[in-house]
Amino acid sequence: MSFSEDSPVAIRLKHLVDIHKATALMFYHPKASSGKLIHELKYHNKPEIGALLAEYLAPKLRADKPDIIIPIPLHRKKMKIRGYNQLELFGKKLASRLNAHYNDGILLKTTHTETQTTKNPMERWKNVMKTFEIRNPEILKQKHILLIDDVLTTGATLSAAAKLLKESQPEIKLSVAVMAYNRH
Questions:
Q1: Which CATH number applies to 8-181?
Q2: CA angle 16-67-46, nearest 5°?
Q3: pLDDT at 154
Q4: Domain limits of the chain?
Q5: What is the pTM of this model?
Q6: What is the pLDDT of residues 100-137, one digit of tens each?
Q7: With helix as H, strand as E and coil as C, how does the chain read?
């Protein structure tokens, strides 16, 4: 899938939030290889999968590389339970390959929410409204930001985070990259 303004990911998000470009490395299906990879990464402490996926994604992003890579954060309770953020090694490897900065301290998840995986689209939207906070938004000023996540389904989480980033610094160029895109 291309890193562009008309990729399936960009089309899913553009009516929700103003983004520059978007991409996904693969399509997601829970019973296919993509679903098994993401499950292992998220729930079985296999962050090296994220590093490998970043190696495949980085070449797609080089032509319009970001200045700062920001992951969708985990709430501290979920972080304590899981023990790691599945996006950390993915984001750090992408940043290294693209000569960008990885910053997981700007966007914070301040409200603990239940998992999105079992929710319908309306429940997903309600679950993420007003769950994020921005710290030190001046760091973002006039930068190209790449917001990353593991799976895009309805776009609720990514659009909530992206809207907050854009509100804090309206002149940023904001792009999105996800490991997998669930088109259902």
A1: 3.40.50
A2: 80
A3: 86
A4: 8-181
A5: 0.89
A6: 999 999 999 887 655 545 555 555 555 566 788 999 99
A7: CCCECCCHHHHHHHCCCCCCCEEEEEECCCCCHHHHHHHHHHHCCCHHHHHHHHHHHHHHHHHHCCCEEEECCCCHHHHHHHCCCCCHHHHHHHHHHHCCEECCCCEEECCCCCCCCCCCHHHHHHHHCCCEEECCHHHHCCCEEEEEEEEECCCHHHHHHHHHHHHHCCCCEEEEEEEEECCC
